[in-house]
Design a protein that fits this description.
With 195 residues, the chain is an alpha/beta fold. Helices cover 28% and strands 22% of the residues. The chain has helices at 15-25, 50-65, 99-109, 174-177, 182-194, and strands at residues 8-10, 32-34, 69-78, 117-127, 133-144, 160-162. It starts with 7 loop residues before the first strand and ends with a helix. The chain binds inosinic acid (IMP). Residues 73-76, 89-90, 120, 153-157, 169, 181 line the site of inosinic acid.
Length: 195
């Protein structure tokens, strides 16, 4: 699979994500431009799956810009909560982005549930202006722990220990966490398809 000529649109308005995605794409040596730089509208994430939302964001940006576009959608799935918070991972933190409250909700809903298995999921969607879309999924399996530990990460990192590790993502440095992540695994698949 080859990328069409022209810059690749990164379909996000989050400058942190733009930097992170651009760094992951560095081996491709492709020019990138963000949806915010192009002044594209941010579509509402109305789908009920990570794939659905990633495809919706990538398609909207590809159509609006007339260029290939890459979008991601990610979140935490807790098995005993039937996959919650899932696509609602960011929304559980509310408008104040209060992840302490979101983590407390995960823990309170897990009371009485012996199974603490969880996974982070990241879906990348690569859309071409003509309508073709491909998706790449990465996961990081692990377990929910309490109380939260570590100040280094973001989101639900302090309550997640990846399988085979004692420390939470929140206690790991960026360099240590990155190769274990759902995001890195999804990008590995994308790069393999494009090189
Ligand atoms: P997105 O920006 O719509 O993909 O929202 C993903 C949400 O899932 C974020 O706001 C985080 O709460 C959570 N999330 C995704 N990846 C991670 C991670 O690596 N660590 C902690 N939380 C994450």
């Amino acid at each position: 699979m080859k990328l069409p000529a022209g810059p690749l649109v990164l379909a996000t308005h989050n400058p942190g994500k733009v930097r992170e995605i651009a760094a992951m794409l560095a081996p491709l040596e492709v020019a990138v431009v963000s949806a915010a730089e192009l002044g594209l509208a941010e579509p509402e994430e109305t789908e009920v799956t990570f794939v659905g939302n990633a495809v919706l964001k990538a398609r909207a940006a590809a159509e609006a810009a007339g260029l290939a576009a890459l979008a991601d959608d990610s979140g935490l799935e807790v098995l005993a909560l039937r996959g919650a918070p899932g696509v609602h991972s960011a929304r559980w933190a509310g408008p104040e982005r209060d992840f302490r409250a979101a983590m407390e909700r995960v823990w309170s809903e897990l009371q009485g549930q012996p199974d603490r298995s969880a996974r982070f999921v990241c879906v990348l969607a690569l859309a071409e202006p003509g309508g073709a879309v491909r998706t790449f999924e990465g996961e990081a399996r692990g377990a929910i722990v309490w109380p939260p530990r570590g100040e280094k990460g973001f989101g639900y990192d302090p309550i997640f220990t990846p399988t085979g590790h004692e420390r939470t993502f929140g206690e790991m440095s960026h360099e240590e966490k990155l190769p274990l992540t759902h995001r890195a695994r999804a990008f590995e698949k994308l790069l393999a398809a494009l090189t």
